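User: Structure please.
Assistant: Input sequence and predicted structure:
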Amino acid sequence: ILGECKLMMEGSLLFCIFVFLSLCVSRVWSENDCGVHKAKDGQFKLCPKEVKSVVVGRNTSLYIYTSHYDNTTYDNISLSVIMRRGGVVEPITDIITLSVPGNYTLMFHAIGAGRDEIRFNYTNNEDYETKPITRLHRVVRDVSIMHSEPLNIIIAIIGWIYFVAWSISFYPQIILNFYRRSVVGLNFDFLAFNITGFVAYSAFNIGLYWIPEIQREYYDKYPGSVNQVQLNDVIFAIHAAA
């Protein structure tokens, strides 16, 4: 029994390390999720921020900032906005002209429920010799359109009720074993399979909720699909596995 308990403790430690590394990978990927422009006289970076979910019929904003690596300034850099799917959200302005450094706002109008991807295409400036913006294919922002904001709130409340109910169910057996000072009747095979299942479930939820590259693979395979993994799913899975 002691050997099995030690093995499960080691498994929990490895799982905590996995969660920590997943968060680190997610943060590093997010920080590098920008387009980098390299020219003979300098280079600059273009980074759009995340887009908030919006209800059908309303507008949402995408904020873009540009920064340079040196003191060189750039003007009249044109980006065209491309919607991958269409029929969900449409840009109010198709083309935006940027300068470096600077901050800009793009407006979009929601016309249908679902999810779409905002991408960009680069237009060269003829005033000086340039090269294309590298990693521009990674400068992708998702926008989710919902039918009803109150319905989304109800969904979130039910999700957290589910989290609390299932989390409480884990503790009666632990409390009973503590008071009895015994684990008689507790099947360790059940614990091993339970932990294995929740570790796999946690890996799935963490990947879809926190790691952009995994999200991108999911969206590429299922265009227009909405990521159904919520924060309560991630916390529940981590709590259950740990």
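Confidence is low (pLDDT under 50) at residues 26-32.
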